[in-house]
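Many introductory courses stop at the sequence. We go one step further.
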Amino acid sequence: MQLDYAHLAALAAILRTGSFEAAAQELGVTQSAISQRLKTLEERVGMPLVLRGTPCEGTETGRRLAAHLDQVGLLEGALARDLETLSPRVARLRIAVTADSLATWFLKAAAEVPDLLFDLVVDDQDFSADWLRRGEVVAAVTAHEAPIAGCDSTPLGAMRYVASASPTYMARHFPSGVTAEAIATAPVLIFDAKDRLQQIWMARNLGVTPTPPSHRLPSSTGFVEASLRGLGWGMNPEPLIRPHLQSGALVPLIPDTTYDTPLFWQSSRLLAPALEALSKAVQRVAKQTLPPTSSPTSPSTFPPR
């Protein structure tokens, strides 16, 4: 089966923008043209590729086909840089990245490769590995150390977390110190339903795993802001709160109880030459930002956010 890349471009634009209308505007064609191209592609493939809704989402096959187009664009861009007779094409990369990496260091690395466009998927370690297995992303920042099939895995260092809160919060909830009894009733910040960092820290340092009242805040910067305002305590990324720790606006719950999550850069082996500039930037910036990983650990033991 031969694929028509104009049809693939229509599919990718629908999934990227979330609607047929926005896809038409992005590609400079009519909405009916987008619909016809998708219909033709679905007939050729023999299955639905888009789940109509607000926004539109791709089926598993639809997402893989859209990713294939991005991979072809990446290879074409690399080839154009080597052959001056070809017109360069800006490649779009779909990459899975943890939220705290995105908030602290990843964008600095991305900015070092200005001839690429990024479609970033924010997810935790298990899901980022699944994105790679399905071929829907070309690379991922993950705590999954073992190489996914077809990928190379490179250690980046460790994301260091500090269980921290504002001095006012500490005085209100821990006037006699951080104890197992006190922490059971002190409001805690939770990133999302997958976030277990606070529970792991309590088990490791206090020997308990209570379920205290919690705020759910799926934002790395929002997590820090909530900590500063005394809403709760939480496991904050050290690079993000370093100035606040230095100024005393935030303090550790218990000194010297940081928690490290090893991170790895997993990228497609097939696309390694085309990804080389980005991979080098990711490794360089991570080395500048993250402490080295102390020892190999099981990914299930150190879930990143």
